[in-house]
Each structure stands twice: as structure tokens, then as C-alpha cells.
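Sync notes, pocket subgroup
Present: LS, DG
LS reminded everyone that the earlier model was apo-only. Rerun requested with EPZ included. Inputs:
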Amino acid sequence: MAKYIVENSGPLEGTLTISGSKNAVLPLMAASVLTDEKCVICDTPALRDVDVMCALIGSIGGSVQFHEQTNQVELETRNILLEGAPSELAQKMRASVLIMGPLLARTGKAKIALPGGCAIGARPIDLHLKGFQALGAEVIMKQDANFDYVEARAQKLVGSDIYLDFPSVGATENLMMVACMAQGVSTIQNAAEEPEIVDLANFLNKMGARVKGAGTDTIRIEGVPKLKGTKHVVIPDRIETGTFMAAAAITRGRIKLENAVADHVRPVILKLRECGVAVEEDDDFIVVDARGSQLKATNIKTLPYPGFPTDMQSQFMTLLLTAKGKSTIIETVFENRFMHVAQLNKMGARIKYEDRRASIEGPKQLKGAKVSATDLRAGAALVLAGLAASGTTEIDEIYHIERGYERFIEKMRAVGANIRMEG
Ligand code: EPZ
């Protein structure tokens, strides 16, 4: 079983280029199924999740070519051969659910094996399905020997007003895509406002859609009969950006991040400054300079964008272990996103948590240990912990990390991290 071996690392120093966003490119790839013309997406990160989405679109009849050397993916779904993703693929990645909206819009049918929950929560898709029904689809739950399925069918999709009980990123994306080809006008209220939503709206509008208000809590979509192919450059990955910002801070180093959008990580910048870390920003780069800093404790509450991102919670928890004083972290987005606490406690963290609130006392001198990645961001947090810990940290289940960070080890080593893969 492959694992990362991380040794205590001195201050990380150097310059890194941020890759394209995993959480932006997956919906863009799904949106390409809305047209029978070719779409080209540039700056696509070479990740396992991108490979799964390529396979998914291939399995329903699309032709997909991912050129890893140029980070460009070409997608063309002239004919749809299957109104649903093979179950094994859908089970591999939750974001597979994003193929439902485009399939429903294109063929009037969409069937998908229910993507199971994962370490951070049950991850239901009720808001997606409720939105499909509001647009005129019938939703049926089915079962076979191995999987629970959901099927959506619609003779005609008619624009409607949709209210999301929670500003779900995936539900906002799925409903934007299907509403683009409904008859009439739809609104999505209490919509997610993440930068990935704005990037998807820009992509859809380049395809000929009429989407307004993306990035606010109310999105208005006027349906059109047909969409065309387009070419698009995906936005940089704001969570990769935040993760390397935390890596500079926890090792008291200095890293310059190019192709980074400061506005997309505003809460992370402000919280780092609150802890006493210097952060310089410009149009397309960010410099984090923590050299010689004695970090101060702070409090974090994760919220939907523009609040502090839940995908940065585990990395910041690790950072706060090296800050002086008592910090608290409240996780409001997922019901079970403290799985990394037990792993950090194996390294001497002594973090306590109850329900969604964790208390962190620092500074703690972490000690290297054998730990396991429980989800993508928790795995990244354990790498950060290993950089600051004394001795050697072995991290297994690293497939979680590999699915979401492009060339992670290569980038870490480029700024001086003592990390290697074994097995
Ligand atoms: C996206 O997941 C991201 N994934 C997640 O990143 C991110 O943590 C999350 O948004 C929140 O920002 C991708 O974009 C591929 P949600 P998504 O729907 O769309 C509940 C990472 O590490 N909910 O906004 O699945 C849900 O249970 C991943 O890159 C419902 O109750 O997130 C959760 O508690 C992890 N019913 C909350 O909303 C629904 O129908 C937020 O989920 C949908 C969601």
C-alpha cells in the first residue's frame, strides 16, 4: 500500500504555480454534455477525479481526450448512448452526480447510482432531486442487487423558482445546468456563491446560455433551445492555494504562489494575518511570509462562501497546533469533518471536540507517527503536521490526497519539504 514518508522540514521557501481547480473543472466537464459540439478546457489538473469524470463522460457516449502534457481536455458528446453513469464509476466519486443535470437537459432522462456517503458525512442529494422536480422532472428511487439508483425523467423541463434549503455547491451547479435548457426562466434562491459557481456560469454563457447573478445568492437562468461548444480556462484551485499558504505558515517559511487569486482565499488571508503571518497579495500571486513568526491562536467557523472554507478546516487546525494559545474551530458545513483529530492526536496534539466544535491548545510539539488519511483535505493536513513534527510521519490511504492535488509531492519538494512516497 503506497504511503507518504514525511520528515521534519525546515522553513519551506520558494515559488509554486497553482494548478487548475478540481472543484471547478468537474462541473465544467459535466456541462460539456449539454451540447453535441466540442468543448476544450485548459488548465485542467491531472487528477484521479478528472480521470473518473473523463471515464464517466466516455461511458455515456462522449469522446474525451485529456492531454496531460498541456493540461487540456477535449470533450465531444455527439450522441448519448446511455442515460446514466455505470454504477461503479458513480460510486468512485461523489461529483458523478453532476452528470445528472446535463443528461436530463439533453435527453429527458438521467439515472445514477446513489453516490455513497464518505468520511465527512452522509452527503445526500435531496436538494438536487427537489430542484429537478421543481423543473418538471419525475424522480424515482430504484434498487438492484448491488446499488440504490435514482432516476429522473421529464417530457418537458419548464423554468421554475427553486429555493435551496442549504446553499449546496453541487445542487446549485446541477440545477444551473439543467435550467439552461428548460423552457422559460428559472431562479435558484439561496444559491451557493463559490468561485466555482461563477466559473461554471461563465462557461455556460460562452456556450450560449443566459445565466445571471452567479456569485450571489440568487441566480436567474433563461432557458435556450441549444448550446454550442466553447473553449475555456478553468480558474486556479483556491484550496490548493490555501493548503500551500498553510504549509508556508506551519514551517515558518516563505512561499510565493503564482496563478493564485487572492479574492478566492480572502478568509484564509485574513485569518493568517490574525495569527501574525505576513501575507502580500497582487493580481495573480500571493506571498506568505511566516519567517520568524510566533503564531497567535484564533477562532475559525467554517461557512459557505464567502465564509471560511470547510475544505481548509483540517489544514488550519493543524496550523493552529503550532500557535500560542487556545483556538476553537466550529465546522458548520459537514456533520462529520473532524476525522483528522484522532490522527493528529496520535502525533501528540491532544485536541478535544464535541459535535461540531473542536478546541486546540498550542503550541504543541508534534511527534512523527503512523497515521491514515481519512479524506482529501485531512490527508493534506497530516502532511502539514508531518512537516512540523519531530521525527518521521508515515501517512497511508494517500489515494485520498492524490485524487485532489496535482503533483503534490513534486510541488512540496520544490519548496524544500522532506517528503517521499513509498510502496
Ligand atoms: C462541494 O461538495 C465540494 N466538492 C466539496 O469539496 C466542498 O467541501 C463542498 O462543496 C462545500 O464547499 C466539489 O465541488 C466536487 P454541498 P458538494 O452540496 O457539492 C448538504 C473537497 O475536498 N447537502 O455544498 O457535495 C451536504 O450533506 C470536497 O474538494 C444536502 O443536505 O457540497 C453538506 O452537509 C469535499 N443535500 C452540505 O450540504 C444535498 O442535496 C454542503 O454540501 C446536497 C448537499
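DG: The mean pLDDT is 95.
LS: The chain has 14 helices and 23 strands.
Action: DG to write up.
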